[in-house]
């Protein structure tokens, strides 16, 4: 076991996130059970904590082909077997949850984890939670706007009086428990919408960019807009934090990484596109090769290639956090564990060193 002082890192934070998808293994056709998927997520978080990674995120879906709908419950379980790693949602669909309940859940998680709870909030790429909890997709954006503004007020005040459109008013309501941290850190997940980037800046919260492919340069205007909106709203630039999230797979060589990951990544987009009502067209190897080229944002390759990609993006964005999703497409857990080891021992130390200069 490494000593605690060895974990005092400089440079950007590096971590992992999972959405808990239960895709079938493309080789065997077998689908992991929700129970086993949950156990593997918790074990991955434990490995990440022991290896010295900085943050672990769990995303929210409300479908039978995903295992993680009750994110604070999963994170609370992780909190009990980890010591230092930050625990965040990735993302919370803020449009379809009561902000008071959300705050109470994560404040409780913060107490249980000795101050390690965070939230990444988003409007949601999937909309199954809207009918499930009785919301109208026509209110997609209005719900998010109202809920995040209420959440920020809850974060600042232990008693609150508030009136809104979508939930009952609050009159000198006690908001309990209070987190161990002065306030729960909150980020807004942004997939590519300028309005979302500007809103995150105006609110003075972090911005977590989901960069799943293509040239990362196209996201530079969003970072600039975020910073501009934040400064114009009176926020300090040092408080406007940017995170980059994306898919990844790491192996000793680039060719090995691509050969091993292609069947799983093609499988992943096959079932995700079906979930979204799109055509079930398998990704060709040629398309995959293009997606994994050195100029793109997909983090697949040798440790040196991943380091170069992260540092290229750091030159563009100056971001404070990088998080990879490395457990998709039915990938066996042993490969996930290998990826965690490579990220923690061969990639993270160099990235931290270079970004601390």
Automatic annotation (TrEMBL):
Source superkingdom: Bacteria
Keywords linked to the UniProt accession: Monooxygenase, Oxidoreductase
Location of the Luciferase-like domain: 13-316
Gene3D superfamilies (UniProt xref): Luciferase-like domain
GO cellular component: cytosol
GO MF, one annotated term: oxidoreductase activity, acting on paired donors, with incorporation or reduction of molecular oxygen
Keyword DNA damage: no
Pfam family, one: Bac_luciferase
Annotated protein name in UniProt: Luciferase-like domain-containing protein
Natural source organism: Neobacillus bataviensis LMG 21833
């Amino acid at each position: 076991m490494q000593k605690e002082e060895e974990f005092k890192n400089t440079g950007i934070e590096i971590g992992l996130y999972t959405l808990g998808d239960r895709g079938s293994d493309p080789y065997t056709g077998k689908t992991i059970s929700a129970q086993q998927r949950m156990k593997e997520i918790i074990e991955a978080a434990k490995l990440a904590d022991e290896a010295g990674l900085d943050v672990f995120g769990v995303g929210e879906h409300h479908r039978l082909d995903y295992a993680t709908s009750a994110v604070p419950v999963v994170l609370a379980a992780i909190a009990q077997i980890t010591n230092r790693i930050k625990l965040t949602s990735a993302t919370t669909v803020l449009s379809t949850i009561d902000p008071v309940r959300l705050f109470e859940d994560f404040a409780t998680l913060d107490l249980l984890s000795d101050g390690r709870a965070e939230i990444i909030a988003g409007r949601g790429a999937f909309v199954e939670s809207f009918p499930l909890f009785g919301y109208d997709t026509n209110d997609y954006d209005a719900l998010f706007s109202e809920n995040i503004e209420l959440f920020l007020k809850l974060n600042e005040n232990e008693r609150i009086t508030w009136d809104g459109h979508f939930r009952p008013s609050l009159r000198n309501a006690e908001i309990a428990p209070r987190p161990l941290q002065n306030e729960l850190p909150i980020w807004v997940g942004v997939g590519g919408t300028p309005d979302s980037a500007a809103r995150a800046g105006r609110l003075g919260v972090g911005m977590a960019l989901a960069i799943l492919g293509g040239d990362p340069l196209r996201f530079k205007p969003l970072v600039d807009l975020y910073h501009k909106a934040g400064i114009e709203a009176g926020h300090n630039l040092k408080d406007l934090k940017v995170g980059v999230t994306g898919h990844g797979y790491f192996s000793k060589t680039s060719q090995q990484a691509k050969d091993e990951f292609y069947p799983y990544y093609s499988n992943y987009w096959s079932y995700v596109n079906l979930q979204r009502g799109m055509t079930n067209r398998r990704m060709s190897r040629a398309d995959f090769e293009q997606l994994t080229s050195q100029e793109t944002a997909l983090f697949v390759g040798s440790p040196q290639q991943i380091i170069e990609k992260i540092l290229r993006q750091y030159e563009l964005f100056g971001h404070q956090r990088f998080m990879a999703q490395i457990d998709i497409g039915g990938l066996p857990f042993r490969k996930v564990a290998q990826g965690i080891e490579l990220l923690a021992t061969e990639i993270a130390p160099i990235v931290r060193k270079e970004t601390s200069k």
